[in-house]
Amino acid sequence: MTFTKPGGTIYTQPDQGGDDTKDSDANPVTGSSPVITVVSGETNNTVDAGILRPASLGDFVWEDKNGNGIQDAGEPGIAGVVVMLEDGSGNPATDINGNVVASVVTNASGQYGFTNLKPGVGYVVKFTKPAGYEATAKDQGGDDTKDSDADVVTGKAPVVVLQSGENNPTIDAGYYRPATIGDFVWDDKNANGVQDAGEPGIPGLTVTLSGTAGDGTPVNLTTVTGPNGEYSFTGLKPGSYTVTFTKPEARYIHSRIRRRRYERQ
Predict the structure, then answer these.
(1) Does domain 179-264 bear CATH number 2.60.40.10?
(2) Where do the CATH 2.60.40.10 domains begin and end in the chain?
(3) What per-residue confidence (pLDDT) applies to 47?
(4) To bridge 113 with a disulfide, which of 49, 58, 60, 97 should be the other Cys (CB 3.0-4.6 Å)?
(5) What are the tens digits of pLDDT across the range 63-122?
(6) What per-residue confidence (pLDDT) applies to 69?
(7) Which residues of 192-203 are buried (b: 16+ CB within 10 A; e: fewer)?
């Protein structure tokens, strides 16, 4: 007996399990069953064929501008991100026909997809971090269609097992560009509140950055002004921050006052 499968499908593996009434008997290549011998008056209702339809997965790589790990309205996709597909053991994945699945690149809208996948096996999507970006926190919020699934270290999403004909459009990755806060602490010689030409920076002052990143992580960082009064906090996650300056010690202020008096003499 030979079965004719629908276009775009394949036969499932034959002779699985221990119940011949429940397995598939069609050869995956030819579609034919083994030779069946029946005797006079016999009814054989065990000759079956299982069909698999290709599955697919994919979705979106986006710039998480506020760093909250959620795809907010208006946040853009990131084009040109390389996305790979592995099996559950970290090897290159194969499709429904046994061919290695090639990597893909996100389009201008940040979209990507893998098609013609085999149901019933584990697939792992691996995102390659784009240059100049860092991975946002994963599994934020309560909507799996809007969060980031990429591990912040490996770039890998959890294992996904697809059903016959299933499309899973929920595997996303969010990235943010690190931010910087900083500038200058200076000696306002004429007390007008403006950085006038020639007014020097004040070195060695402690500056503290405190606040909360967009994903809720508390931030508390400290630095010291450089030789020219400059300071900077780099590599920051998007978030809300406050900068606190430590006022120079009284002896420094008194020294500056005496110097000014001397300069006026």
Answers:
(1) yes
(2) 54-177, 179-264
(3) 64
(4) 58
(5) 999 999 999 999 999 999 999 999 999 999 999 888 999 999 999 999 999 999 999 999
(6) 96
(7) eeeeeeeeebbe
